[in-house]
Amino acid sequence: MSFNAAAERVRARMHSRMFSYRAIFLHPESNDPPARWWQPAYWRKPTGGDLNVSAEVVMRDLARYCYVTRPTLKVSQVTQQSDALAMAFAEGRRDVFNRITALCNLTSDQIERIAQRTADND
After folding, report:
1. Among 39, 78, 89, 106, which is least packed, fewest CB within 10 Å?
2. pTM score over 0.70
3. 76 — phi, psi (to 5°)?
4. Residue 52 carries which DSSP code?
Protein backbone atom coordinates (compact mmCIF):
# COMPACT_ATOMS: atom_id res chain seq x y z
CA MET A 1 0.00 0.00 0.00
CA SER A 2 1.41 3.36 -0.99
CA PHE A 3 1.80 6.24 1.43
CA ASN A 4 -0.91 8.27 -0.33
CA ALA A 5 -3.43 5.41 -0.07
CA ALA A 6 -2.66 4.91 3.64
CA ALA A 7 -2.93 8.65 4.31
CA GLU A 8 -6.26 8.75 2.47
CA ARG A 9 -7.60 5.87 4.58
CA VAL A 10 -6.58 7.65 7.80
CA ARG A 11 -8.09 10.94 6.60
CA ALA A 12 -11.36 9.21 5.66
CA ARG A 13 -11.58 7.50 9.07
CA MET A 14 -10.94 10.75 10.94
CA HIS A 15 -13.40 12.61 8.75
CA SER A 16 -16.07 9.96 9.36
CA ARG A 17 -15.43 10.02 13.12
CA MET A 18 -15.61 13.81 13.25
CA PHE A 19 -18.94 13.94 11.43
CA SER A 20 -20.30 11.06 13.52
CA TYR A 21 -19.59 12.92 16.76
CA ARG A 22 -21.18 16.05 15.32
CA ALA A 23 -24.27 14.13 14.19
CA ILE A 24 -24.81 12.67 17.65
CA PHE A 25 -23.86 15.47 20.02
CA LEU A 26 -24.73 18.70 18.18
CA HIS A 27 -28.26 19.94 17.70
CA PRO A 28 -29.39 19.84 14.08
CA GLU A 29 -29.79 23.18 12.43
CA SER A 30 -33.55 23.38 12.15
CA ASN A 31 -36.32 25.73 13.10
CA ASP A 32 -37.68 23.31 15.70
CA PRO A 33 -36.56 24.38 19.16
CA PRO A 34 -35.51 21.62 21.57
CA ALA A 35 -38.13 20.34 23.99
CA ARG A 36 -38.42 22.36 27.20
CA TRP A 37 -38.73 20.78 30.64
CA TRP A 38 -42.49 21.47 30.83
CA GLN A 39 -43.27 19.76 27.50
CA PRO A 40 -44.24 16.06 27.47
CA ALA A 41 -41.51 15.19 24.94
CA TYR A 42 -38.87 16.16 27.51
CA TRP A 43 -40.11 13.59 30.06
CA ARG A 44 -40.43 10.59 27.76
CA LYS A 45 -38.09 7.78 28.68
CA PRO A 46 -35.90 6.89 25.71
CA THR A 47 -36.21 3.34 24.50
CA GLY A 48 -33.24 1.27 23.50
CA GLY A 49 -33.21 0.61 19.80
CA ASP A 50 -30.82 -0.02 16.98
CA LEU A 51 -27.92 2.36 16.77
CA ASN A 52 -27.65 4.47 13.65
CA VAL A 53 -24.44 4.48 11.65
CA SER A 54 -22.99 7.55 13.37
CA ALA A 55 -23.75 6.20 16.83
CA GLU A 56 -22.13 2.88 15.91
CA VAL A 57 -18.92 4.66 14.87
CA VAL A 58 -18.85 6.77 18.03
CA MET A 59 -19.57 3.83 20.34
CA ARG A 60 -16.82 1.75 18.72
CA ASP A 61 -14.39 4.64 19.17
CA LEU A 62 -15.42 5.09 22.81
CA ALA A 63 -15.18 1.34 23.42
CA ARG A 64 -11.62 1.35 22.11
CA TYR A 65 -10.72 4.42 24.21
CA CYS A 66 -12.44 3.12 27.37
CA TYR A 67 -10.72 -0.29 27.58
CA VAL A 68 -13.88 -2.32 26.93
CA THR A 69 -12.01 -5.21 25.30
CA ARG A 70 -8.69 -4.81 27.14
CA PRO A 71 -7.68 -5.27 30.78
CA THR A 72 -7.21 -2.13 32.85
CA LEU A 73 -4.24 -3.51 34.80
CA LYS A 74 -1.34 -1.13 34.26
CA VAL A 75 2.26 -1.98 35.09
CA SER A 76 4.77 0.76 35.78
CA GLN A 77 7.75 0.65 33.42
CA VAL A 78 9.99 1.99 36.16
CA THR A 79 9.15 -0.27 39.11
CA GLN A 80 7.66 -3.21 37.14
CA GLN A 81 4.76 -3.29 39.62
CA SER A 82 1.09 -2.55 39.15
CA ASP A 83 0.33 1.16 38.97
CA ALA A 84 -2.79 1.84 41.04
CA LEU A 85 -3.30 5.40 39.78
CA ALA A 86 -3.08 4.44 36.10
CA MET A 87 -5.40 1.51 36.72
CA ALA A 88 -7.93 3.78 38.48
CA PHE A 89 -7.78 6.18 35.55
CA ALA A 90 -8.47 3.32 33.10
CA GLU A 91 -11.36 2.09 35.26
CA GLY A 92 -12.77 5.62 35.22
CA ARG A 93 -12.78 5.52 31.43
CA ARG A 94 -14.57 2.18 31.49
CA ASP A 95 -17.13 3.57 33.95
CA VAL A 96 -17.89 6.43 31.56
CA PHE A 97 -18.56 3.94 28.74
CA ASN A 98 -20.84 1.93 31.03
CA ARG A 99 -22.73 5.09 31.96
CA ILE A 100 -23.24 6.06 28.33
CA THR A 101 -24.50 2.60 27.42
CA ALA A 102 -26.87 2.65 30.41
CA LEU A 103 -28.24 6.07 29.49
CA CYS A 104 -28.75 4.92 25.90
CA ASN A 105 -30.58 1.80 27.15
CA LEU A 106 -28.34 -0.50 25.12
CA THR A 107 -28.85 -4.21 25.60
CA SER A 108 -26.01 -6.54 26.50
CA ASP A 109 -26.17 -7.98 22.96
CA GLN A 110 -25.64 -4.52 21.46
CA ILE A 111 -22.73 -3.82 23.79
CA GLU A 112 -21.19 -7.20 22.96
CA ARG A 113 -21.53 -6.48 19.23
CA ILE A 114 -19.80 -3.09 19.67
CA ALA A 115 -17.00 -4.68 21.72
CA GLN A 116 -16.56 -7.49 19.17
CA ARG A 117 -16.30 -5.05 16.26
CA THR A 118 -13.82 -2.98 18.27
CA ALA A 119 -11.67 -6.07 18.92
CA ASP A 120 -11.83 -6.99 15.22
CA ASN A 121 -10.64 -3.51 14.18
CA ASP A 122 -7.64 -3.46 16.56
Report:
1. 78
2. no
3. -70, 135
4. -
